[in-house]
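Our preliminary data section would be incomplete without showing what the modeling component actually yields. Below, a chain of 333 amino acids is followed by its predicted structure, encoded as tokens that our downstream tools consume directly.
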Amino acid sequence: MSNPAVATPVVDCLQYSNWNEEIFRQFAAAPVHAVHVTIAYHESFREMVLNLEEWNRWFERFSDLIVPGRTGDDVRQAAADGRTAIFFGFQNPSPIEDDVGLVEICHTLGIRFMQLTYNNQSLLASGCYEDNDTGVTRFGRQAIAEMNRVGLVVDMSHSGERSTLEAIEISERPIAITHANPAWWHPALRNKSDDVLRALSASGGMLGFSLYPHHLADSGDCTLESFSQMVAEAAERYGVAHLGIGSDLCQDQPDSVVTWMRNGRWTKVTDYGEGSASNPGFPPQPDWFADSTGLANIAQGLADAGFSADEVDGLMGGNWLRFFDESFGPRGS
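Predicted structure:
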């Protein structure tokens, strides 16, 4: 299967779906040529390796649809072959435990993104749900330095304001916020302030716009026009080259998975997090983005919002591809 006519690959820089053949075939139908998938929420190193083993079985079984992704060139090859390159990331630094040496091991295993925290205080930084954001810790500074050295991207999607600003300043390589939206559009606790997004773009970092309903104005009733106009405003403020898609799609996941995402092992009581007591499960997606095939709707919405064809290509994957090229190898490579 070959498609050499693909000029600019399409990239979705965050999904945590209930992986199956149908979803992989939707990747091909979309098409989406690279997807950053969450390989760990609260897992230990050994538990994370078990998740990698499961992905290796999928790569073997569905080799005509998906391939491991390690570099930007893997995205280009996947696009030419009509397949999707899968990049791994952590939403929590728990797989490195308390050992900075595991940063390099994880990179060797194919991990390319690591959040310094998932909502709570971690050994590295403070999460966005903590009352007191104490910033990047001593261990966090060492972890960032090691991540910079090997080419493991610092992701601050679930981190607090101070921690995120400090990570941007401390990191010697551009960081990413792979899945969030501007707080000036929708004031969800997880969305990012104008100060953070200006600092992110000024440092060369990337923002992936989220399609997770709790991050959207009007939740699942958000219109494509509203989303696209938000992207247009963000492009005016931060520059279109620093923006892409990180849908945070949790397709086909049962509501019970929300408990694992929110609670992990740290609490015995329900942590409603970004939901509410009346709706602690997954909210309904907007009808224009129910699965990856909805990426075509987003591309059209961006064009309708006034973006040029080249700008749409950048937003839909070209900007992430440039970031992958610059970020996944050892520093100075």
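The radius of gyration is 18 Å. The chain has one domain: 11-327. Preliminary results of this kind motivate Aim 1 of the renewal.
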